């Protein structure tokens, strides 16, 4: 029975007066769907993290599980995540932790058995984790983020974490919500950064062709190659919905009266266990076709399957087709912002868009956040400069300061008699600051050093003013800080195959 059929049934069963129940059901379904989309399934377009992933990073940060520190029991990270931020069960949280540790560019560094392509991870009590080097670099930015109360109201959690590149662009993101699914492939970090820099430079004039100049297609750390031609992937990057065809890496060579097929790279969608089961089935049902199959994978060689076939014809008929996979992708993301509604903590908007437009939106958000950071730092620098100037002024007029302190109202005396302060628009604030300083400390002020410090602060203010006026360059500069983590793509494209 469909939803609409249920509504009709509900009305008929209630003699045509079932509208109250219908409205209640519609509201509950909508609320549930929104909850699943917002709180579990879909990543935020700004940091590229799902809520569980973001809360894991927050919990790890709270525990000071940083790269230069010792690892923390995974069970502790899971427990703190569940207890403080994510009340949805420890199994799902640990699964997210393992996924982040096994990603193409892992934000979590795991120690212990975090699983393989064929085996699951050990229990969280047996493994340890901390934030990885690239996780530290991606989350190193000091952009201002909104925080909201957690589910108990006891702690604060970030609406979004500042990242130098959206996490889901470099690490795959899959999620199933109510009436909505998300499937974003992983991409090469170097290609994504270069594409983002191009979009920053060209702005609204950037096209799909511009980003595909750098992004050759999805990338996958276990190898394989893309069979789809570049023009066949245009719809994916133009609309955010499309398919890509892959093939595993393999070699075939004569072996006595047979042929040995060695699979050395697993493309997206390829399941080694499923493949082995099919080969065993063929061995039983079709005699003298598949002679044997063996999983020779090791920790140093995670992708290695061996299949002995009777002939090349058998390989083409039974084996080769299993090495070709097609994956459908759909780019969905959400935008979570602090709500202006006093009854709600967060407002959520679902974004269905192309990778290009997601990049454009991310860059606009990134520029606004970097502007806030620069402005905040400028205000702090200007304040330090102002106080240094007041200390310098006081050190040069110690007699006036001492005389002021002997009066009934030293602040008023300084605002009227201290040369260099009485014409200052912040004279009253400056007088209060000087009066709070100890005379002995003012006598010890190194005037030459203070003047040099003021000059350095002035220079820094000028640099910040330049950054605010050229915020695009700041975004590019932050992206370039990810260069130490660049690597060549593993998944070969058709033109390289």
Structure overview:
The chain is α+β, with helices and mostly antiparallel strands and 497 residues long. Among the domains are: 247-324, 2-Layer Sandwich (Gyrase A, domain 2); 375-473, Orthogonal Bundle (Topoisomerase, domain 3). The chain contains 19 helices and 16 strands. The chain has helices spanning 3-13, 19-41, 51-62, 74-84, 90-101, 133-138, 167-170, 189-202, 208-212, 234-239, 272-285, 312-319, 355-396, 398-405, 410-417, 427-436, 439-443, 447-469, 471-480, and strands at residues 72-73, 108-111, 128-131, 147-149, 156-158, 173-176, 181-184, 225-226, 241-247, 249-255, 258-265, 290-295, 305-309, 324-330, 332-338, 346-352. The protein has a 4-stranded antiparallel sheet. Strand 15 and strand 16 (346-352) form a beta hairpin. Helix 3 packs across helix 4. It starts with a helix and ends in a 17-residue tail after the last helix. The mean pLDDT is 87.
CATH-defined fold name of the domain at 375-473: Topoisomerase, domain 3
Strand content: 15-25%
Helix content: 40-55%
Which segments are poorly predicted (pLDDT under 50) over 5 or more consecutive residues? none
Which descriptor suits the 3D outline? Answer: elongated
Largest sheet, order of strands side by side? 10-11-13-12
Radius of gyration: 31 Å
Question: What's the total number of strands?
Answer: 16
In the CATH hierarchy, what is the class of the domain at 375-473? Mainly Alpha
């Amino acid at each position: 029975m469909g939803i609409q059929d249920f509504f009709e049934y509900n009305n008929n069963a209630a003699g045509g007066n079932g509208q109250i129940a219908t409205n209640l059901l519609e509201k509950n379904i909508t609320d549930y769907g929104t909850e699943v989309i917002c709180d579990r399934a879909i990543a935020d377009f700004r940091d590229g993290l799902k809520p569980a992933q973001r809360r894991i990073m927050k919990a790890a940060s709270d525990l000071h599980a940083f790269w230069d520190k010792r690892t923390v029991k995974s069970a502790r990270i899971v427990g703190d995540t569940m207890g403080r931020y994510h009340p949805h069960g420890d199994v799902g949280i640990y699964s997210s932790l393992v996924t982040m540790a096994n990603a193409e560019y892992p934000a979590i560094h795991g120690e212990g058995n975090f699983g393989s392509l064929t085996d699951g991870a050990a229990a969280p009590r047996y493994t340890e984790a901390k934030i990885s080097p690239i996780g530290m670099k991606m989350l190193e930015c000091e952009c201002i983020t909104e925080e909201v109360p957690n589910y108990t109201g006891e702690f604060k959690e970030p609406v979004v974490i500042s990242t130098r590149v959206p996490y889901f662009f470099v690490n795959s993101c899959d999620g199933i919500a109510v009436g909505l699914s998300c499937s974003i492939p992983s991409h090469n970090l170097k290609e994504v950064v270069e594409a983002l820099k191009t979009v920053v430079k060209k702005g609204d004039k950037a096209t799909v062709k511009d980003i595909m100049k750098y992004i050759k297609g999805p990338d996958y750390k276990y190898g394989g190659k893309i069979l789809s031609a570049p023009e066949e992937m245009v719809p994916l990057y133009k609309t955010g919905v499309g398919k890509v065809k892959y093939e595993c890496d393999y070699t075939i060579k004569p072996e006595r009266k047979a042929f040995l097929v060695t699979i050395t790279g697993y493309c997206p969608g390829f399941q080694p266990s499923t493949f082995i089961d099919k080969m065993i089935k063929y061995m039983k049902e079709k005699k003298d076709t598949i002679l044997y199959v063996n999983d020779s994978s090791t920790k140093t060689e995670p992708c290695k399957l061996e299949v002995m076939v009777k002939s090349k014809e058998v390989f083409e008929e039974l084996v080769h087709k299993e090495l070709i996979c097609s994956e459908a992708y759909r780019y969905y993301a959400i935008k979570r912002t602090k709500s202006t509604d006093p009854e709600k903590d967060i407002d959520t908007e679902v974004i269905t868009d192309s990778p290009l437009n997601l990049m454009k939106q991310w860059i606009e958000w990134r520029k606004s956040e970097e502007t806030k950071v620069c402005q905040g730092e400028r205000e702090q620098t200007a304040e330090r400069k102002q106080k240094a100037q007041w200390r310098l002024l006081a050190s040069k007029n110690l007699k006036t300061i001492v005389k002021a302190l002997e009066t009934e109202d030293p602040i008023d005396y300084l605002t009227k008699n201290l040369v260099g302060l009485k014409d200052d628009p912040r004279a009253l604030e400056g007088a209060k600051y000087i009066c709070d300083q100890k005379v002995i400390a003012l006598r010890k002020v190194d005037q030459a050093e203070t003047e040099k410090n003021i000059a350095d602060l002035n220079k820094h203010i000028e640099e910040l003013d330049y950054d605010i006026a050229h915020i695009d360059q700041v975004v590019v500069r932050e992206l370039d800080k990810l260069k130490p983590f660049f690597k060549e793509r593993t998944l070969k494209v058709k033109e390289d195959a």
